[in-house]
Amino acid sequence: MTAAPPPVGGSRPRGIQSGGSALREPVRIGLIGAGRIGSAHAGTLARRVPGAELVGVADAVPAAASRLAGQLGVTAFGSPDELITADEVEAVVIAASSEAHCALIVAAAAAGKAIFCEKPMSQTLAEADRALAAAADVPLQVGFNRRFDAGFAAAHEVVASGGVGTPQLLRSLTRDPGLANPGAVPPWTIFTQTLIHDFDTLLWLNPGASVVEVYATADALVAPEYKPAGLLDTAVTVLTFDNGARAIAEASFSATYGYDVRAEVFGSAGMVTVGDQASSSLTHYGPDGRRVTTVRGDVELFRDAYAGEFAEFADAVRAGREPAVTGRDARRALGVALACIESVTTNRPVPL
Amino acid sequence: MTAAPPPVGGSRPRGIQSGGSALREPVRIGLIGAGRIGSAHAGTLARRVPGAELVGVADAVPAAASRLAGQLGVTAFGSPDELITADEVEAVVIAASSEAHCALIVAAAAAGKAIFCEKPMSQTLAEADRALAAAADVPLQVGFNRRFDAGFAAAHEVVASGGVGTPQLLRSLTRDPGLANPGAVPPWTIFTQTLIHDFDTLLWLNPGASVVEVYATADALVAPEYKPAGLLDTAVTVLTFDNGARAIAEASFSATYGYDVRAEVFGSAGMVTVGDQASSSLTHYGPDGRRVTTVRGDVELFRDAYAGEFAEFADAVRAGREPAVTGRDARRALGVALACIESVTTNRPVPL
Amino acid sequence: MTAAPPPVGGSRPRGIQSGGSALREPVRIGLIGAGRIGSAHAGTLARRVPGAELVGVADAVPAAASRLAGQLGVTAFGSPDELITADEVEAVVIAASSEAHCALIVAAAAAGKAIFCEKPMSQTLAEADRALAAAADVPLQVGFNRRFDAGFAAAHEVVASGGVGTPQLLRSLTRDPGLANPGAVPPWTIFTQTLIHDFDTLLWLNPGASVVEVYATADALVAPEYKPAGLLDTAVTVLTFDNGARAIAEASFSATYGYDVRAEVFGSAGMVTVGDQASSSLTHYGPDGRRVTTVRGDVELFRDAYAGEFAEFADAVRAGREPAVTGRDARRALGVALACIESVTTNRPVPL
Amino acid sequence: MTAAPPPVGGSRPRGIQSGGSALREPVRIGLIGAGRIGSAHAGTLARRVPGAELVGVADAVPAAASRLAGQLGVTAFGSPDELITADEVEAVVIAASSEAHCALIVAAAAAGKAIFCEKPMSQTLAEADRALAAAADVPLQVGFNRRFDAGFAAAHEVVASGGVGTPQLLRSLTRDPGLANPGAVPPWTIFTQTLIHDFDTLLWLNPGASVVEVYATADALVAPEYKPAGLLDTAVTVLTFDNGARAIAEASFSATYGYDVRAEVFGSAGMVTVGDQASSSLTHYGPDGRRVTTVRGDVELFRDAYAGEFAEFADAVRAGREPAVTGRDARRALGVALACIESVTTNRPVPL
């Protein structure tokens, strides 16, 4: 299995269609997880990924699987295990709760299935190592969807081809539009679930470099009443790389203006910026000036990127090659996240 | 059959998914025309429109149909007639050469098939009337794809809901990136094939108003050596509406910077502008300033709009309702185009 | 006297400082006209033009001159004639009512004074010829201020240096934020006072080309009740040039979103666009999206351009050369405006 | 003496004219320092600040003063002391080398002159205290020019009026276009000369809040060969405020694309961004996409802001009030810079 570059370009058409995939048999996919993101993935897999065929869904709660399967006209499996071992399932997309990811990867790999796992792939580095070892012989892709956004992919291409020279200052940020249920947010979520995207982005946009030290600071500014319970809703981190570059990652759970994901790479020969919240090309002018409507959620912002990551997965499965985003990438981003948590705990920079 | 509003919004997700369509049987579509746009449509229908299933293609040149059908793994019909009368074909998408449109509509309607016809629906108003009469009892949609672009759709929503007050000055333009084969361009193409899009846009963005007079001027500035053969590659037209609004439509066949389609509606209470050539959200900064890459073709710019128009068609067919863009819309835009041609010929404003 | 290129560049600093002007004696300027634009010019001349010194003001209404002179601490002359013949006045800036322009030019030229005259320089071509003949031996500059806006000047530079190839399609527009007193607007004002700016812009941005035909249409859409009295508040014109280029100029008196002046030149090798209504670099994001505040008036939008045109005037006077914008330019733009009026009257294209 | 809000708004006209200043006697200003920024300030004071009159210049090197004075037609004083004690000098603008600032403030205050001092006001907090004590009875303004940029001023207005709610995440950055002479850059310059602007900006955009802790990391990435000599050309800092907000300030000495200064304030109710590198409103479209030219230096970017800070100074002097940017502001920003230096030295967060 060899890694291929992600089959996306800087072009507006964000869905990715691999050349001859229509002639190939679509990859028969079973989806585990019928929650918010699982349901969105199911819709994407059922309708928008030429090389994939959604054959069924499962969930720890069978009724949730039944409801989603009914909406899409596919099979509802009685349990994740049943789905994993079903003959008609060729590949498994894991969108269950994060705690279950590692065990599901191990089970799916044992069943010889190709695996797509939502981020975070694991909760600990030990779990990551267990997942990587288990999946050594099957394709394993992780859900760092930003890599399949046309703008982010174009930024990567420019950086990787030397268009900004040597990266020196990088920035990646995530601002989620809302914190619906602060009481339900596990401690450190902002690092392990949110900023983990930014860490992957920053590593990907500083190709070949490794993080040698992190500093992180975080607080509960949106919902301070939940701070005693461990909620951190605002965070800033600084990563120092072995090539000298410094990168900032920041996140907040309370953007009133929508879902905001941006990145910037400044280097010795130029800069790229990427990320735009505009919901369309419309500008509306009136007595209060000119106005552009902004996107409201990840599914809206990354609709094509979600389709793109699954197209890459289907293509890698059919081609028998390693997907463009691997379990090793997931382990690496997790390592940064865990070091950041330690930095917040100790209020010190933490070497990696 | 009743007209429904187009099921698109101002949101970034440009593909249109009708609520429960996944549970419905997809509409079985036969495509006529294996040229540039026909091939693009075939790819869209095969891969990106949940409510549609491409069952086969036909072309006046059977070998062209075979090649395209082979690429997509669908049936190659021996002739358009064969496709039209095939039992497994429920609806026909006509992307043949313009001269053939009217006869194909009449034939498909006679066979009771739902019809999607590329623009222009017809070459003359008499043809348009013949097509409309023939298709009185089947769904007939015309390929004014811009209406399904997220930005244009949002502009329409703002205008239709009074967001700019009464339209007073409108503009729509098309700048095609190249004129590959000037000798092959039939006379008046810039009006009947290109600006017809802009005329539909302007009529749609000035809801309820009718054109009462047009003025047009045109020239061969890109390829002047072909002017004697009737080529006009640059045109400007002014439409006067019965509500007093004036609209400008302009077109050129030689945009060196890509494919450029924009519109603007200025009214008593504000303005909307729409259309953006950026190929992604990437901005690249260097010694020569900051730069944004531009899209290069209609298929790239309107990828989601093409999928959207077919989703609307499939939905209208399944719902037994009139599509959002009708044959009457096609006739209306053609009337403006023909009056513009007369204006160029006579160098006078022409009343409608 | 030889014409010099306007001493402005594409740079943000919009005020123009000629190299050694600080060492020269400033040009002693008398201003005629204490109305809205005259008062704005007085403030600019008093404070923002290094090479100029405002020595006094005059007005047909002496009390108006006294009030303005008092505010600025300069001399109030008893009449325009008194100012023109005053020894301490070296150059005259004419910002009186348009009907008075020609006679004031003749008088100032007779007194040997350098002359800056607001647009329109004259009401008729005969008047224009009289003014040109009278001012044959003194510097005469006309108030086409847009040429001194950094963006417009940069556009001209790009076009003049071949950056867009041969111009093929041009556009210039003016949208004024309000029509305070429709009853006071003389007939044809939209052509002779407003669009005359756009005509100059279009001629300047299509260097070396001449207008050979115009088509114009106009209406009273903002204040239709004043149409019987001759008010036209909305106009669209199409100019055909001898190099084949077509240009659109449009104007409205009712932009709710501020003062909007833009231009576009599309040519065989590219395009430039210019004009931005943003009042600063601030973008404000909130629940209704992102918003930019817009400028509200010409004095705000063209503050630096006004200073720039006077700096050019002062420099030309001191250098004994012809200013960058001449009386011939004024005559040429007026010719286009008058042909447009004829086109509206006859509803025909009018050759020049 | 009471502090007044800075007399700037969010409007495009960036020069600031205090209402009745034309009737007042302009403030007679002597400038100390004939280097790069001193010469720029001299030009601004001589030509662009209505309320100010440049009467003379001085420099530690008399020949430098003579040359500059000659260019502007003003007096060349034999030494800074001579200028400070001259009767015709009412106010002193200090643009000498940073080491000299404190002593010059003390001397000017002793002579009873109003004082405008470039940043940094002092090298140490002890010096800052000495300067503040000395200038207790004269107006003392410090050169934090960004506050007088139209965009930054508008951002402050929005934030101060609650337009983004409570600030939670802030960012300010400075990217200088070049490092002409790395060997001549004193150690820690990036903090005391460059980022000190950003620290003032961040304090000003988080009104009422104080910095309680800083973390900083810095390196020599542009000119690593000068690192042994103490050069740091790239820095990232994180400030934690007592209201919980986190702010990032970053700087680099090597922007290939021009001079880049931006800020962002994200809060509980929205966000503002400010800063634009475009040199004019021109966009140029060609085969490589669309392009905007960028500004190349601070004097170009902040031309109006420089005029604005001097207009504020002149107005404060005439009004007998405290200027909008005080010596206390300078001390506060210096405190942050010194803590950052300690953080780099110790590789620890440093409490204030």
UniProtKB/TrEMBL annotation, chains A, B, C, D:
Statement: the UniProt record of this protein carries the keyword Lyase: no
Domain Gfo/Idh/MocA-like oxidoreductase N-terminal stretches: 27-141
Keywords linked to the UniProt accession: Oxidoreductase
Disordered as annotated region, ranges: 1-20
Pfam families: GFO_IDH_MocA (PF01408), GFO_IDH_MocA_C3 (PF22725)
InterPro entries found in the cross-reference section: Gfo/Idh/MocA-like_OxRdtase_N, GFO_IDH_MocA-like_dom, NAD(P)-bd_dom_sf
Boundaries of every GFO/IDH/MocA-like oxidoreductase domain copy: 152-272
Gene3D superfamilies, per database record: Dihydrodipicolinate Reductase, domain 2, NAD(P)-binding Rossmann-like Domain
Oxidoreductase recorded as keyword: yes
Family: Belongs to the Gfo/Idh/MocA family.
PANTHER family: BINDING ROSSMANN FOLD OXIDOREDUCTASE, PUTATIVE (AFU_ORTHOLOGUE AFUA_2G10240)-RELATED (PTHR42840:SF3), NAD(P)-BINDING ROSSMANN-FOLD SUPERFAMILY PROTEIN-RELATED (PTHR42840)
Name of this protein: Gfo/Idh/MocA family oxidoreductase
Protein's organism: Cryptosporangium minutisporangium
Lineage: Bacteria, Bacillati, Actinomycetota, Actinomycetes, Cryptosporangiales
